[in-house]
Every structure is written in C-alpha cells, then in structure tokens.
Specification:
405 residues, 11 helices, three-stranded antiparallel sheet, single chain
C-alpha cells in the first residue's frame, strides 16, 4: 500500500490535509472518499485500517481532515455540518480533476450523515457506506448542549466535547437544524450499506434502524457486534473495511486485477517499510493476499505470517493430491483435514545423530480422513501425502537464483 499526502483547497480557501491510500500495484480500479467522525481526524486508527482494507479490494481511498480538525486549516467553529458537506464536495472535485471521479463514499458517525448528503449531490457517487451514523443531524447537539445557552449572550463559547475543548458559535449550532437527513435518505436512491454496533453508547442502534427504514433498496445492514463507536479494536475496523470492499462489488463492474510489474514471475510482494510495519501485499494474476507478523513480535496481525503461508501451501497441495489419488482409486474419501506446524527443533530431540548437533527445521503434518476407509487405505493415503509436489519441494534441496532488478 502506498500513501500520498495531499493538500486540497476548499471553497473558503482553506487547505485540507489529505492522504490518498493506493493498492500495492498503485493502480486502483475505483476511488473512494472517507469522511471521519465528529471532532476526530483522518489519522484515527479506525480510518486508517478501513482505508488499508479497502486498498486490498482494489480501491484508492482518500481520507482527509475536515476544516478546523486534524491538520487542516480553519477553526472548528467553521466545521459545521454544511461546511463538512462542502469539504466533501471540494475533495470530490479535486479527485475528479487530478485522478478519477470517486464512486464510493464512506462516513463514520456524523461523517456518515455528511456522506449521505454529499452523495445526494454528486452524480459520480454510486454507493454509500455509513458506520455508526446518526439518523438525524441534530443528534450531535447533545454533545455540546451545556454551552448552547451561553452563545446568545457571549457569542463564541468554549465547550468540552469528549474531554477536549472546542470553540463554537451560533452559526455552528443552528446549522445542525438546517438539514433534513431522513428526507434526504429517502430520496437518495443509491445502494447504501449501514454498519452499526448494537452496543454503541454514543450513537444508539435505533439510528441504524431509522436510516434503514428511510433508505430505499438496494440497502444492507451489518451488525458490528461488541464494537464500540470509534471501532477502537483494530479487528473491528479491519472487518468493516473488508465488509465494505466485498459489499460494493455487487454494484461496480468487476475489473481484472492489475499486477505489479513482475517481470514474468508468478507472484510479487510489496512492503513499504516506512508506512506498513511488516504488512506485506502479495499479488498473483487474480488474487491479492496479505502477510504480516503476529502482534507478539511487533506485527499488526493483519494477515498470516510467512511461515503460515508456507504451511498453507503444504496443506493445500497435500489435500488436493489426496483428493486426486482417492478419486483415481475410487475410494470413499469424503473429507480430508491436514494439520501442519513448522518449528525449530534440536537434532538431539529428534533423535537424529549428527557430527555437529544443531537446530533443524521441523514440520509436523497430521492427517484426518472422513469416509469409509480401511487401515490399509489410510496408510496408503499417508504415503501419498508425502508425495505431493510442495512436500517434495520442501524435502529436497532447493536452488535459489536471486537477482536485483
């Protein structure tokens, strides 16, 4: 995944800081815009994780900071709801001019409400996904209700929202009453995916119900069981990104996965050491994979480890070889389970006599057969399991030819 930093000028002349996340091949099939939650920023972990997940589905994702938030210019008091919508339109126009017109818009919390309204104004947006979004825009007013009474006399007042101080004014407050989100949702007539946690204590699950009732088909709802409003658990946000990526393929034409430049090889992997820790993108002609390291050794656990992929290759090849052999023999093999573990064991523990005892790579392979098989057949299948191509490759001396290109 590649991240490009951008500065996008909105209609008021403020620079909005943005990041464009691209797939490993840096050739997205489609573009998406992400609208972050109220008082948050584009660097929220959930925003980054969802964007990263979507790049694995071939999307280029632009996440940005609304006016007065994060590293964007302007004051928070200018970041009222209508201004959020204007920012989304400015970002959409920038993407259309410099890249390709976005076709998917995603919004988190109040950003979800803004995404619905912006989608109603932008013909190029073909689908909408909301996460923990309110059904009415003025839902958020309770967050700063303690300061509303002082605005008429004091003008600008400082309020505490989520433990942070923000300055608001009358325009900021009154703007939330201008938008009729239920009516806009009813007239949207674009595919919409509503994701919401039933245990969301900030924006209750009843909001998802109201949004769903107001929206027209095609509409979908996914319950984010046990997730909090900010998707603080990275597994929740990665799940959301993958769900959106899978859901939206129903509405966009499928495109062939474009490869990174592989120079005629079978696979290519890409790791951005600055941005992605250990997370490595791997591509074949038709498939995208993610490799990572577990959190216990400093990884993000976004995908299987390299040795788990090695084990996976052995498992797949073993199972397929056993299938072909059993079918040729017309044996009643209905299912096969292959359990594999790689480890390093000392030659003494393996009872292998060496002139210089040392640690060796050890692979444990266990087989479970389902079907009407006698012991002789099972033992023969065990022998065949060691003859699968990947097993033979691992057991033999391999010659590597590594070059710099």
């Amino acid at each position: 995944m590649k991240k490009t930093k951008l500065n996008i000028v909105n209609k008021k002349g403020y620079k909005l800081q943005a990041y464009l996340e691209l797939p490993a091949n840096q050739k997205p099939n489609y573009y998406a815009i992400f609208a972050h939650c109220f008082t948050c920023s584009s660097t929220l972990g959930a925003v980054k994780n969802i964007s990263k997940s979507l790049t694995q589905h071939g999307f280029g994702v632009l996440r940005f900071d609304f006016t007065g938030l994060g590293r964007s210019e302007g004051e928070f008091s200018e970041s009222h709801f209508s201004a959020n919508i204007d920012d989304l339109i400015s970002v959409n126009d920038y993407m259309t001019e410099h890249y390709n017109a976005p076709c998917l818009i995603i919004g988190h919390s109040l950003g979800g409400a803004a995404a619905i309204v912006a989608a109603s104004k932008l013909n190029n947006i073909k689908a909408v996904a909301t996460i923990g979004a309110p059904a009415n825009v003025n839902h958020v007013k309770h967050l700063f209700s303690h300061g509303i009474d002082d605005i008429e006399t004091a003008g600008d007042v400082q309020v505490n929202i989520g433990g942070r101080p923000f300055k608001i004014n009358q325009e900021f407050v009154s703007d939330f009453d201008k938008i009729n989100l239920p009516e806009i949702t009813k007239s949207l007539r674009k595919p919409i995916l509503i994701l919401h946690s039933p245990t969301d204590t900030i924006v209750g699950i009843n909001n998802a119900q109201e949004l769903y009732i107001n929206a027209h088909h095609p509409k979908s709802f996914v319950s984010l069981d046990n997730a909090d409003h900010l998707l603080s658990n990275s597994k929740d946000s990665m799940y959301v990104g993958n769900i959106i990526g899978a859901w939206v393929t129903r509405y966009f034409p499928q495109q062939e996965n474009e490869m990174l430049e592989t120079n005629g090889e079978q696979l290519v992997g890409h790791l951005n050491l600055i941005e992605d820790n250990f997370t490595t993108s791997i591509q074949s002609k038709n498939h995208t994979l993610i490799a990572d390291e577990p959190a216990s050794i400093g990884g993000d656990d976004f995908g299987p480890s390299p040795y788990e992929y090695l084990n996976a290759a052995l498992i797949a090849c073993t199972a397929m070889t056993l299938k072909l052999y059993a079918e040729r023999k017309k044996w009643d093999l209905q299912e096969v389970f292959v359990y594999v573990t790689h480890s390093r064991k000392h030659s003494d523990d393996l009872e292998i006599e060496l002139e210089k005892p040392t640690f060796l790579d050890h692979i444990s392979k266990k087989l479970k057969f389902v079907g009407n098989l006698d012991e002789k057949q099972k033992n023969r299948l065990k022998q065949i399991a060691s003859k699968c191509p990947v097993h033979k490759t691992l057991a033999s001396e391999v010659i590597f030819d590594t070059t710099i290109i």
